[in-house]
UniProtKB/TrEMBL annotation:
Family: Belongs to the ATPase A chain family.
CDD domains: ATP-synt_Fo_a_6
Name by which UniProt lists this protein: ATP synthase subunit a
Main location: membrane
Naturally occurring in which organism (per UniProt): Glaciibacter psychrotolerans
Function (record text): Key component of the proton channel; it plays a direct role in the translocation of protons across the membrane.
Gene name linked to the record: atpB
Amino acid sequence: MNRIILIRFLAVAVLLLVFWIGTRRMTVIPNRMQSLVEMGLDFARVNIAEDLLGKKDGKRFLPLITTIFFMVLFMNLTGIIPGLNIAGTSVIGVPLLLAVIAYGAFIYAGVKKHPGKFFRNSLFPPGVPPALYIIVTPIEFVSTFIIRPITLTLRLLMNMVVGHLLLVLFFAATQFFFFTADGAFKFFGVGTLVFGFAFTLFEVLIALLQAYIFALLTAVYIQLALAEEH
């Protein structure tokens, strides 16, 4: 148990609290909290799940995609909250776990839809001359079954790490210029403070964007597994 684990627990607790408050007394005419929760759920359903997978398959995988989207979003946002100051996704454990779950959903969807043919068609794409399989099959194996979960993990992880380091750099420089530097150098602290707040707002956008991208790529991989060519 360490600080990053506590932050992750806190993010999950806040997420559960938000959804509990927003759904405990649902009415036909929603209040503000219910409207906010419904907007978030509709965004994940319409713009990610159903847009890529259609209504039938989108409904099947909606709980997974929605959970990934909101979990990543809330853990990303802890990086800009004073006192926490680090995203729950900026250490590899959570990004790797979610990538493994997304990868498992991809394999499950493919095997369920195309039993006996999913792995064969993934490694030996139809229409390729047999002589080329000696080149194509290793490439397909690496790109489909190794590169995908790795890139899914690193994309989220590195974006949050870089954002954290930039904020640390700007606000550490602000503290140095205001409290340590001499004379006119103190005025540089104003510039670093402005840039720090600007990048904080930018990190809000990045937090939302990375949550969307992770959930979107999960849906894309599931869509590829369900495609008829498998």
